[in-house]
Write a structure and sequence with these properties.
Elements (H helix, E strand, L loop, with lengths): L3 E2 L6 E2 L12 E5 L4 E8 L2 E4 L7 E3 L11 E3 L13 E3 L6 H23 L15 E5 L13 E3 L2 E5 L5 H11 L6 H19 L4 H8 L6 H11 L18 H24 L3 E2 L11 E2 L10 H21 L12 H17 L4
Parallel strand pairs: 8-9, 9-11
Antiparallel strand pairs: 1-2, 3-4, 4-5, 6-7, 10-11, 12-13
Length: 354
């Protein structure tokens, strides 16, 4: 993600900020320009200082302090480009549910930052029976009642509300034997299933995808059960980005899709900070990187991966110096890099203008 600054006072901002910490101006995100802007009230609308000739309104979900995105003042929409995909939200009268919903929306809006930057097709449920939509659901209060499962079903992505509880999520991570489990990772993974439908199944790319990820026509439920019974094959790191990716070609695609979004968005952040990596003891240059390009617009995937590998090694080393786990605890084998290359081409053909 790129860096933002207040147009009124030059203060650097986080994507989630709703007010400038220095000048106290209200802030609103303009997704069509990918800019966070200081906003001045003007009648029933707001004037963004980043685009002073336009007028904007805040998303209706700003009322709940879960969204800082805006829409054109003359738009017939009530919700922004991210929130209009919500299908079911938590009970807003329950404080705990509200806090968890806010955390989910922070992650979801970062997802949509990426999807909008890539110009990927995202029809709503009102526009398409299999349009992209989200249910944020809590478990039944009855201890013996049904439990919500995070997953994707024909465009509808369900995220279990308990995933927004750090202790619950860490417990699930340990129980599942995962090195990494985040809300943003859930969103990026599940939306990968949606774009498999849109860009692979409906985009005429089935044969090409199967050549890289394997035959997706194999029984999914049987493959899932076999994974949970036997675990991944011993050599899985040579072919897959994660143990879960070994379950079925659909999961392999979704995991690889999520990692591609991880890589691109993190590289953009690094570029925004002007980061470069030049280890003094590396005489070969293999771990050197100058991250001075926009990965969202970079046609050459090799450039993306050549800079990602040194950056990942550097940030993992920094985390270890703080006694923290690796920021990116994954190994990208040559086979996995080729899968990421396929996703790169698919994204560019499906969205990003050449």
């Amino acid at each position: 993600m790129r860096l933002f600054k207040c147009q009124n006072c030059e203060q650097l901002l986080y994507f989630e900020n709703t007010h400038c910490e220095r000048c106290k101006d209200r802030l609103g995100y303009l997704p069509d320009g990918a800019v966070l802007s200081a906003m001045e009230p003007e009648g029933d609308a707001w004037k963004p200082l980043a685009a002073p000739d336009t007028r904007r309104r805040f998303c209706a979900n700003a009322e709940f302090d879960v969204c800082n995105w805006t829409i054109p003042a003359d738009s017939p929409d009530t919700y922004c480009a991210a929130c209009r995909h919500n299908h079911l939200i938590p009970d807003t009268t329950v404080p705990e549910s509200m806090q968890r919903w806010r955390l989910l929306e922070l992650a979801k809006h970062r997802l949509f930052y990426t999807l909008v930057r890539f110009c990927l097709p995202m029809r709503t449920r009102n526009e398409d029976a299999e349009g992209l939509s989200f249910d944020f659901l809590a478990d039944s209060p009855d201890p013996n009642g049904p439990k919500v499962m995070t997953g994707h079903d024909n465009g509808l992505i369900t995220i279990a509300l308990k995933e927004a509880d750090d202790a619950e999520r860490e417990l699930m991570r340990k129980n599942m034997g995962e090195p990494y489990r985040t809300l943003l990772g859930h969103f990026r993974h599940e939306v990968g299933h949606y774009f498999w439908d849109r860009l692979v199944r409906d985009g005429g790319q089935l044969d090409a995808c199967r050549a890289v990820f394997g035959d997706d026509s194999q029984d999914y439920n049987a493959a899932l059960q076999a994974h949970y019974n036997s675990g991944p094959p011993p050599d899985w790191q040579e072919h897959y980005v994660s143990a879960y990716a070994t379950t079925h070609p659909w999961e392999d695609f979704a995991e690889t899709w999520a990692h591609y979004l991880h890589i691109v968005d993190t590289l953009e952040t690094a570029a925004s900070f002007g980061l470069s990596v030049h280890p003094r003891i590396d005489q070969t240059g293999d771990l050197h990187a100058v991250i001075d390009f926009d990965p969202y617009r970079e046609p050459d995937f090799q450039r993306i991966i050549d800079d990602w590998l040194p950056l990942a090694f550097a940030v993992n080393s920094l985390n270890r110096s703080m006694g923290q786990p690796d920021l990116y605890p994954f190994v990208l084998s040559p086979a996995v890099i080729e899968k990421l290359r396929f996703i790169h081409g698919l994204v560019r053909n499906g969205g990003v203008p050449a």
